[in-house]
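Throughout our pipeline, every protein is held as a single compact record rather than as scattered files. The remainder of this section carries one protein's record, kept here as part of the documentation.

===
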Amino acid sequence: MSAPCCSNTSKTLIGPVFICWTVIHWFWDRFREKIACVRIPVGKGVCGTAVAERRIQRVDDVHEFPGHIACDAASLAEIVLPITLDGRVVGVLDIDSTIYHRFDQEDEDGLNALVERLCQQLNQTDLRRFINNTLY
């Protein structure tokens, strides 16, 4: 079992990156100050699969994931959690690692709790109204 991914392991993690799925078609990795990817279609790559299937994707080896989109050549493992608002996926939390098999069930459970809390907060804010009025 690995250490929880939110511990001090920044040298092995790439991200985290929040992707707002419908509003923007590219995202900026503020931790490395570079554009990461352009237009990830729903159903493509790990992020697009998480959106299409509306479920967490935990990938031990990204090179074995069919259709993996390599936004960073250093990425070897990845976990992606859908962010939902009013039952619709509006984004994902995407974390990559430079270590194979980096994410375990403990990481998934902790990140899922974080995303669930974020979704609860989004549902209670004006951002909810903004997203609903802007996106749909």
